[in-house]
Design goal:
- 40% of the residues lie in helices and 8% in strands.
- It is built from 23 helices and twelve strands.
- The protein has an eight-stranded mixed β-sheet. A four-stranded mixed β-sheet has the order 11-10-9-12.
């Protein structure tokens, strides 16, 4: 690879950022495939810009330290980099694609150099005369690569439907590409009109097959497998479409396109007989997204039904032989229109942070001790209103499940909890619809004040602590405080907090077996705290001790030893009538498990009756 004089117009090199929504989304393979299939006259260079480090050089037996790492040691990051200096650190993949490699592992110095090279004041990559495909890995919106994403001519986001929920994917795509010039969504192993793409509610640029064998052969420059899907043909179609849209070679007005003669009958018949090529759609101008409204702060499955189908765009004739001109929905040939900006889904509004503007504390509260209850603190007056009945039973269950897992659940774990051994046929769509109903139910019940009960976490499904408080979270925090308490005062405070929260059994409306260990652990911790407080107050405050013991029997109703202590405290407080009532209540409770009070309890009752007369 030699330095090529910088061109202009249709020959000007491009910077294409390729980012994945997860560490295994396929951003690296996609960048290599598009660079290998690039139809421009200029060469296509792959730059491993992933903040987590590179992998290509090691994968093909190259030198991972020849590239960005070696370049960083020889240049001044505040000065422009000469093209020849950069080319000294370029190596080639076995398939002939030039590579500016990065060693594995994060490195702040290298990340700064990469950002400067791609988006700095000098933008040194332009001096190379090559179009650059920056493999950005799975960056966060506020990462060091944010300037590079914004400076790129297009940001292509790679999404694997089996790794992420569509509603969450849409939010992350909008956040990641905010400020980008053009946005393109590439689905791996999907089709533009399947359930995931519909629920995503964002324009889809194209589709690449999930072809591991073909990807390995492409990177290593070996023969493609004879069977199964192949990556390179689909990559050629997408690369040609991207270049045609960003650097059109034959610009034409709509009026000129309308005057194009319709194809002859033999040509049309031949096209119908040919195999259909991969479908590619128009890049989405990310910077022209209209001002959002709170009512549509998050895309969901309902929003997908209002989205018009994207209009295919033509690609150069040499890359798609025999393919007819783009067809609009009304059937006219040869006319290409950009999608109406008003039809694009809107990015998350301020309400998507989980609480309405101006309110810092979470406004939703989930109570898990006892049956699940959801409370909303209305902005007018600040009083809590129960909205449990306004939510579907399935939505209440999802909220309870996530509330019992504060660190969140992976997609597989959540599916296993919700459906167990009987998952639905269309699993992705079912999960997306279930979570969409949760969001819709919360939004409706709060009058649009809360629209994002789930956190924006691309690894796990979890509730947003910005929007929701949970008594179980407070309980586990109090248990942790009790364990690390350094003195009796701290111990008392933690135990009293536990006693105030765990007034009954945890999650009584959940019957699945997975909740039993959590319920038993909470019961044990609550009994330990209540027992410690009861022992502490038994000598000097029998009334407080009696209240603690009555809380204990709400959690452990069949423990006769606790009932016996309650009988003794009633006698000590000279509450004679309460002795018989307490014994009757014990008898009723034990009957629930086909048991009766033991002889020792009956003898204690008779003894207390005699001694208190």
């Amino acid at each position: 690879m030699t330095a090529t004089p910088a061109a202009s117009g249709s020959q000007a090199p491009l910077l294409i950022a390729v980012a994945g929504l997860g560490p295994r989304a396929g951003a690296t393979t996609t960048a290599v495939a598009l660079a290998r299939a690039w139809p421009g006259r200029e060469p296509a260079l792959v730059v491993e810009a992933d903040p987590a480090g590179g992998q290509l050089a090691e994968l093909v037996g190259g030198d991972p330290y020849l590239g960005l790492a070696s370049l960083a040691r020889t240049i001044d990051p505040n000065a422009p980099v000469q093209a020849d200096r950069v080319l000294e650190h370029v190596q080639f993949l076995p398939n002939g694609v030039p590579l500016l490699a990065a060693p594995p592992g994060p490195d702040a110095t290298r990340a700064g150099l990469t950002a400067s090279l791609l988006a700095g004041a000098h933008a040194s990559w332009r001096a190379l005369g090559a179009s650059v495909f920056a493999d950005c890995g799975a960056p966060e919106p506020d990462s060091a690569l944010a300037p590079a994403l914004a400076a790129a001519d297009a940001c292509l986001v790679v999404v694997r439907a089996d790794y992420i929920d569509p509603a969450r994917a849409a939010r992350r795509i909008l956040a990641l590409t905010e400020g980008c010039r053009h946005r393109g969504v590439l689905l791996i192993g999907q089709t533009p009109h399947n359930d995931f793409a519909t629920a995503l509610a964002l324009p889809v640029l194209g589709v690449l097959p999930a072809a591991r064998a073909s990807a390995a052969a492409l990177v290593h420059g070996t023969r493609q497998p004879r069977r199964g899907p192949r990556l390179l043909p689909a990559a050629r179609t997408i690369a040609a479409a991207v270049r045609e849209q960003l650097r059109p070679t034959r610009p034409a007005t709509i009026g000129q396109q309308r005057r194009t003669r319709p194809p002859t009958r033999p040509a049309a018949v031949a096209r119908r007989r040919s195999a259909p090529p991969p479908t590619v759609y128009r890049l989405d101008p990310a910077t022209t997204t209209p001002t959002p409204t709170p009512a549509r702060s998050q895309p969901d499955t309902a929003a997908a039904h209002t989205q018009p189908r994207p209009v295919p765009v033509p690609v150069p004739s040499d890359s798609r032989p025999g393919v007819s001109d783009a067809v609009e929905e009304d059937g006219r040939r040869g006319e290409v229109r950009a999608p109406d900006p008003r039809s694009r889904p809107e990015p998350p509004s301020l309400a998507s942070t989980g609480s309405p503007p101006g309110i810092e504390e979470p406004v939703l509260a989930i109570r898990l001790f006892g049956p699940t209850r959801i409370l909303w603190r209305a902005p007018e007056g600040g009083e809590s209103v129960e909205i449990t009945g306004q939510l579907r039973p399935r939505s209440r269950e999802v909220l309870a499940v996530l509330a019992l897992h504060p660190d969140g659940l992976s997609r597989t774990e959540l599916i296993d909890v919700l459906w167990g051994e009987h998952p639905p046929a269309k699993l992705t769509a079912a999960l997306a619809n279930t979570l969409s109903r949760v969001r819709t139910g919360i939004t409706t019940a709060t009058g649009g004040q809360v629209t994002a009960p789930l956190a924006d976490d691309h690894m796990h499904y979890r509730l947003s602590p910005l929007a929701i408080t949970v008594d179980y979270w407070e309980f586990t925090a109090a248990v942790a405080e009790r364990r690390r308490a350094g003195g009796e005062e701290d111990q008392v405070a933690a135990c009293e907090r536990i006693a105030g929260l765990a007034t009954t059994v945890l999650a009584t409306d959940l019957t699945d077996t997975w909740v039993e260990p959590l319920r038993e652990a909470a019961r044990r911790e609550a009994l330990n705290a209540l027992g410690w407080l009861a022992a502490r107050t038994a000598d000097n405050d029998p009334r407080a001790t009696l209240g603690l013991l009555e809380t204990i029997i709400e959690i452990d109703p069949y423990n006769e030893t606790v009932w016996q202590d309650i009988l003794r405290l009633h006698a000590r407080l000279c509450e004679h009538a309460a002795l018989t009532r307490t014994y009757s209540l014990l008898t009723h409770k034990l009957a629930e498990i086909d048991q009766t009070p033991s002889p020792r309890t009956r003898q204690l009752l008779e003894h207390l009756h005699r001694t208190t007369k």
